[in-house]
Design brief:
The structure holds two protein chains of two kinds. Chain A has nine helices and ten strands. Chain A is α/β, with parallel strands linked by helices. Chain A has a six-stranded mixed sheet, sandwiched between helices. In chain A, strands 2-1-4-5 form a four-stranded antiparallel sheet, covered by helices on one side. In chain A, a hairpin with a 2-residue loop joins strand 4 and strand 5. Chain A has one domain: P-loop containing nucleotide triphosphate hydrolases (Rossmann fold), CATH 3.40.50. By secondary structure, chain B is mainly α. Chain B has one domain: Orthogonal Bundle (MetI-like fold), CATH 1.10.3720. In chain B, 79% of the residues lie in helices and 0% in strands. Chain B has eight helices and no strands. The longest helix of chain B is centred in the first third of the chain and has 34 residues. The N and C termini of chain B lie far apart (55 Å). The chains are: A alpha/beta, B mainly alpha. Chains A and B meet through helix 2, strand 6 and helix 3 of A and helix 5 and helix 6 of B.
Chain lengths: 240, 219
């Protein structure tokens, strides 16, 4: 599903990603962890080209995102993304947030988009909020709407950039529950997270980044109980 | 003091007609200024230097010279340069519209930059192309933030419209002057149109407040 080959990313003279290569299979749930500033978010943003890699290739579903000829805007339709700070459209109602892109980009009829949107709201437990504006929602509700908004485009892949980091502690669970449900449907997911519980419980694989390098990858249980590298050991010792 | 407001009574219909004459070109100018200003603002935030530089230069010219001079150049110099006998109405619309667009473009540019960068990213990530993203996601949010500044610009334009009296456009101001010269009396007609200008601005202010409240519904 995703193939990253020799990915480098620099901001000015600052190298934030160094020589990252990884393949991720369809239906896999992958957690990306590491200290802050390790390049986790930048790596994620290189997948849908919100950040343009300095060199290397990124392919999603057999399409080379980094190739100059690729219609990146079109390719992004199939890559959902959820942000730390939600970024819901504040001037649209919850339902309009879900239906805008499907109607505008995929050409769905309004009735069709509404029906689909309501189903998704039901799925994230917010069917009663369709007419509300984002400002009236709690953080956890906003993030669930954001997930539903991304799903409304029927993506093949979902990227989560620290989806629970901006939430009050009591709201983390409701968002993680939605993500767990999504993982069980077979969605391919890339999740940058500080929630080690989620990484351990739900992920099929953990990527550990440090100082822009992919230091260690592994199956979660093995990684958390018996990390192979010193840096991963240090990191886990600090947070667990 | 020999104030006599009753002497302007015969001239009231003549002066009141000026309201529509003034409003006519003010409305067209506001519209032209707003549309052109939006386009200029989009040029200014663009990465393409060929769009950005002319837009910046345009703004610099129209903000850097007096409006009354721009009006005079358009009305008086156009026939000399092109032979086209430009009407006072068209001159007024062009001068005020072009001038206003320079100010409006700065207001809108600031408004767009003030919209959270995350909104753009969310739209991009959903695969929304640039045009609908700007039209439906970014500009509506920018407009909400800049409405007070925009309203201010429209009010300024409405008042400054009195400058067209200098090119023989028979607007409210000009009608007050004509009445004055007939009556050999200045205070009464000038006071009368002062009140009319103030009322027009009040209507604009109330309208702005109403629009602002409507846009706040999503807060």
């Amino acid at each position: 599903m995703i193939k990253v080959d020799k990915l480098f990313k620099q901001f000015g003279n600052n190298e934030v990603l160094t020589d990252i290569s990884i393949e991720i299979n369809k239906g896999e749930v992958v957690s990306i962890i590491g200290p802050s500033g390790s390049g986790k978010s930048t790596f994620l943003r290189c997948i849908n080209l919100l950040e343009k890699p300095t060199s290397g290739t990124v392919s999603v579903a057999d399409q080379v995102m980094t190739a100059p000829k690729t219609n990146v805007t079109k390719a992004r339709e199939k890559i959902g993304m959820v942000f730390q700070h939600f970024h819901l459209f504040p001037h649209l109602t919850v339902l309009e947030n879900l239906t805008y892109a499907p109607m505008k980009v995929r050409g769905l009829k309004k009735a069709e988009a509404n029906e689909k949107g309501l189903q998704l709201l039901e799925r994230v437990g917010l069917a009663d909020k369709e007419k509300a504006y984002p400002s009236s929602l709690s953080g956890g509700q906003k993030q669930r709407v954001a997930i539903a908004r991304a799903l409304a485009m029927e993506p093949d892949l979902m990227l989560f950039d620290e989806p629970t980091s901006a939430l009050d502690p009591e709201m983390v669970k409701e968002v993680l529950d939605v993500m767990k449900d999504l993982a069980h449907t077979g969605m391919t997911m890339l999740v940058v997270t500080h929630e080690m519980g989620f990484a351990r419980e739900v992920a099929d694989r953990v990527l550990f980044l440090d100082e822009g390098r992919l230091v260690e990858t592994g199956e979660p249980n093995a990684f958390f109980t018996d990390p192979q590298t010193e840096r991963a050991k240090d990191f886990l010792a600090k947070i667990l | 003091m020999n104030l006599d407001f009753s002497q302007i009574v015969p001239y009231i219909p003549f002066i009141l007609e000026g309201i529509w004459v003034t409003l006519q070109f003010v409305l067209v100018s506001i519209l032209l200024g707003f549309l052109l200003g939006t386009v200029l603002a989009l040029f200014k935030i663009s990465n393409i230097k060929l769009l950005k530089w002319p837009a910046d230069f345009y703004t610099s010219i129209f903000r850097g010279t007096p409006l009354i001079l721009q009006l005079a150049i358009i009305y008086l110099a156009t026939p000399q340069l092109t032979g086209y006998d430009i009407s006072p109405f068209l001159s007024a619309v062009l001068a005020f519209g072009l001038n206003s667009s320079a100010y409006v473009s700065e207001i809108i540019r600031a408004g767009i930059s003030a919209v959270d960068r995350g909104q753009t990213e969310a739209a991009i990530a959903l695969g929304i192309p640039y045009r609908p993203m700007m039209k439906d996601i970014i500009l509506p949010q920018a407009m909400k933030n800049i409405l007070p500044a925009l309203m201010n610009e429209f009010i300024t334009l409405t008042k400054e419209s009195a400058l067209v009296s200098t090119i023989g456009y028979v607007d409210l101001m000009r009608r007050a002057q004509i009445t004055s010269s007939r009556l050999y009396s200045y205070f009464e007609p000038l006071m009368f149109v002062a009140i009319i200008y103030w009322l027009m601005v009040m209507v604009l202010t109330l309208l702005g407040g109403w629009v602002e409240r409507r846009m706040k519904e999503s807060d």
